[in-house]
Amino acid sequence: MKVKICGITTREVAETAYRAGADMLGFVFADSSRRIEPLEAWNIIAELPADVSAVGVFVNETIAQIHRIAEEAGLDYIQLHGDETPEFCKELALPVIKAFTIKEENDAKKLLEYECDFYLVDSPGSHYRGGSGKPFDWRLLQEQKLPREKMILAGGLNQDNVNEAIRLARPAAVDVSSGVETDGKKDQQKIISFIQKVKQSKQGRE
């Protein structure tokens, strides 16, 4: 089971995450309280181990701007949280993670229209796209024929509920941001505990 820690803004938090076993780190280049500039991201990404992927998060950005930031920051993946079309995704030069908001059962079927490296299923946002800190009903995914090997589960996950979420949704990876924060800042102990919970769980070891 892969783990992605999103909303990275400091080298210290990044190091804590990858030392604890994170497989992907997310850097937000869209409107967010966790937004980071490309050069700041590059300073962190340049120090990452080769087996840890850097993911850039974008919302309704132009292809040219995405490519520019991806090159400046040294990204491995592009994560799209807006209204991007399947055609838009195909034009990107890097592997794509497309996010889908899940409110009802039919929402998950939209991902079948896209050809992406990963599909991120998330809760509806509050101020921003995603990042609400509230889980959606994971049972909405249970009976559906979805590419689980490409699914990243996000939305309101934390160390207390992640094992149940994995059991119900059966994703390939989990993604957390606010669930490992205290007072809006990344909490290094929560990051460690979250990753340990995932990696030590029965589903995480399969």
From TrEMBL:
Reaction equations catalysed: N-(5-phospho-beta-D-ribosyl)anthranilate = 1-(2-carboxyphenylamino)-1-deoxy-D-ribulose 5-phosphate
Pfam families, alphabetized: PRAI (PF00697)
Record keywords, A-Z: Amino-acid biosynthesis, Aromatic amino acid biosynthesis, Isomerase, Tryptophan biosynthesis
Keyword Isomerase set for record: yes
An example Gene Ontology molecular-function term: phosphoribosylanthranilate isomerase activity
Domain N-(5'phosphoribosyl) anthranilate isomerase (PRAI) stretches: 3-197
Superkingdom per UniProt: Bacteria
EC numbers, comma separated: 5.3.1.24
Pathways involved: Amino-acid biosynthesis; L-tryptophan biosynthesis; L-tryptophan from chorismate: step 3/5
Entry's family note: Belongs to the TrpF family.
Protein name (Swiss-Prot/TrEMBL): N-(5'-phosphoribosyl)anthranilate isomerase
Species name: Bacillus norwichensis
